[in-house]
């Protein structure tokens, strides 16, 4: 099991169950395990999921891509394909040592100069591709930021400023990426267009609710259903102040002076196939099995929870309270699991992230004996160095103090002071947020102890 460390001095069995569920959920979506289960090579036949590719039909096999899971995916592909890989490069925040595939640095959540430099190598490899090339595109969460390729007229600093504004606004990932796709050359189907006429196979780890290929990592290998006009609408909806160059580009695009990103039916996608190898439900299914093995009645509420983190927390509290009070929808001891991507509209100057804010809000509202935990599967919630938190009905003593921390978006120091943090370190994967609610039995002891 992935090492999930609780700061709690004397964690209860319910706390340990929450940690076990989270650890096994993350383990289930680690790249080496996912690729081992999904990708195989027998002779010249490369099998990916239910489809196969005859490598004898290609002169070269090239690997490109990036994101938080890219280093592990590259390791796993090298183990499967070995010297059948002719060249490759992936960009990731924590690059390791590669064999056939170069590992290059990028930064998240705000793009950096080193990410721009690394992206140039990917572009070189794509420009060398032809109809006899098989391009294995590694598409994992975080690639939108770590592989910045600013469009003409947009500088890196402009892209950084716009990303900062979007992240603070409370815009969801589809809105954020609608803007980023129209400020980049590889996003929004741009990688597929650059690689054409090569055969492109996307190996996708989804960190997006609903697995929308056009949104995951800003859809480098997928048709883009958004427009320049949609991107402008996002800026206006959230009243964002962005550099003049950004607004000018989007306005020119909306007026038809710039070509749109490739959409469904574009010939560049005729030789593109995408495979979603892992997503949030993959992780939650593993956590459900862990809970059941420990004697709990466990169910997945949804892998698609979204909206403001503090509001989603109230719904999870209500479910825990209903289970404890009425035995509906399941009788305790029970575990409720959910995933997805909540957002935070930043109005204060504090430290935190969506999962930390979720937990603080849950602890403030919780009115029954239960444990609530939430983490970002990449191990770094909202740019902090912690994965998330684990709380219970005793975490908050002063509702006013907790309310003040929420008002200032300052969940991290509040939860740190109460030994409520969860640490994993960078996990090397990313399938979004994972949440666990543990409701103990009638006598206050949970299933593990009975």
Structure description:
- This is Hydroxypyruvate reductase.
- GO terms for molecular function: glycerate kinase activity.
- Residues 335-433 form the MOFRL domain.
- It is a single chain.
- This protein has 15 helices and 16 strands.
- The chain is of the alpha/beta class and 450 residues long.
- It has 2 domains: 5-27 and 280-440, 3-Layer(aba) Sandwich (glycerate kinase, domain 1), CATH 3.40.1480.10; 30-149 and 184-226 and 261-278, 3-Layer(aba) Sandwich (Rossmann fold), CATH 3.40.50.10180.
- The protein has a 7-stranded mixed β-sheet, sandwiched between helices.
- Helix 7 (173-181) packs across helix 9 (228-237) and helix 13 runs antiparallel to helix 14 (399-407).
Q: Which terms summarize this structure?
A:
Rossmann fold; seven-stranded mixed beta sheet; 22% strand; alpha/beta; six-stranded parallel beta sheet; 450 residues; 15 helices; globular; glycerate kinase, domain 1
First-residue to last-residue Cα separation: 23 Å
Please tell me how large the radius of gyration is. Answer: 22 Å
CATH topology of the largest domain: glycerate kinase, domain 1
CATH class of the largest domain: Alpha Beta
CATH H-level name of the largest domain... which superfamily? Answer: MOFRL domain
Our count of domains comes out at: 2
Secondary structure: number of strands: 16
The CATH architecture designation of the largest domain is 3-Layer(aba) Sandwich
Q: Major sheet, described briefly?
A: 7 strands, mixed
Total helical segments: 15
Low-confidence stretches: none
The proportion of strand residues reads: 15-25%
Helix share bin:
25-40%
Strand order of the largest sheet: 1-15-14-13-16-12-11
Bulk shape: globular
Specify the structural class. Answer: alpha/beta
Report the average pLDDT across residues.
Answer: 95
């Amino acid at each position: 099991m992935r090492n999930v460390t609780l700061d709690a001095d004397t964690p209860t069995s319910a706390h340990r169950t929450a940690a076990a569920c989270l650890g096994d959920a993350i383990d289930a979506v680690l790249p080496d395990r996912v690729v081992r289960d999904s990708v195989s090579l027998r002779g010249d036949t490369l099998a990916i999921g239910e489809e196969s590719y005859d490598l004898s039909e290609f002169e070269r096999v090239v690997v490109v891509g990036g994101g938080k899971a890219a280093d592990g995916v590259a390791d796993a592909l090298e183990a499967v394909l070995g010297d059948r890989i002719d060249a490759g490069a992936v960009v990731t925040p924590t690059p390791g040592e590669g064999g056939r595939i170069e590992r290059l640095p990028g930064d998240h959540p705000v793009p950096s100069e080193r990410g721009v430099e690394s992206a140039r190598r990917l572009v070189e490899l794509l420009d060398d591709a032809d109809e006899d090339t098989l391009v294995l595109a590694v598409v994992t969460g975080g690639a939108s930021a770590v592989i910045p390729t600013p469009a003409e007229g947009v500088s890196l600093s402009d892209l950084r400023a716009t990303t900062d504004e979007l992240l603070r606004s409370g815009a969801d990932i589809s809105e954020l990426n609608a803007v980023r796709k129209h400020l980049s050359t590889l996003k929004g189907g741009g990688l597929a267009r650059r690689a054409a006429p090569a055969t492109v196979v996307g190996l996708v780890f989804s960190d997006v609710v609903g697995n929308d290929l056009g949104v995951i990592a800003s859809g480098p290998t997928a048709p883009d259903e958004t427009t320049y006009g949609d991107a402008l609408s996002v800026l206006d909806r959230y009243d964002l102040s962005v550099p003049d160059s950004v607004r000018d580009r989007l306005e020119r695009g909306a007026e038809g002076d710039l070509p749109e990103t490739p959409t469904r039916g574009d010939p560049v996608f005729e030789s593109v196939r995408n495979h979603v190898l892992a997503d949030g439900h993959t992780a939650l299914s593993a956590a459900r099995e862990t809970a059941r093995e420990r004697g709990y009645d466990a169910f997945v509420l949804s892998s698609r929870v979204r909206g403001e983190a503090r509001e989603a927390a109230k719904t999870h509290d209500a479910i825990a309270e209903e289970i404890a009070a009425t035995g509906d929808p399941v009788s305790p001891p029970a575990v409720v699991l959910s995933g997805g991507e909540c957002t935070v509209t930043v109005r204060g100057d504090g430290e935190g992230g969506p999962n930390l804010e979720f937990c603080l809000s849950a602890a403030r509202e919780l009115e029954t004996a239960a444990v609530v935990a939430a983490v970002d599967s990449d191990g770094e919630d909202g740019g902090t160095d912690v994965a998330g938190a684990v709380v219970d009905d005793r975490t908050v003593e002063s509702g006013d103090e907790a309310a003040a921390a929420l008002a200032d978006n300052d969940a991290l120091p509040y939860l740190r002071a109460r030994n409520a943090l969860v640490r994993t370190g960078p996990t090397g994967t990313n399938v979004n947020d994972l949440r666990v609610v543990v409701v103990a039995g009638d006598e206050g002891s949970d299933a593990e102890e009975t």
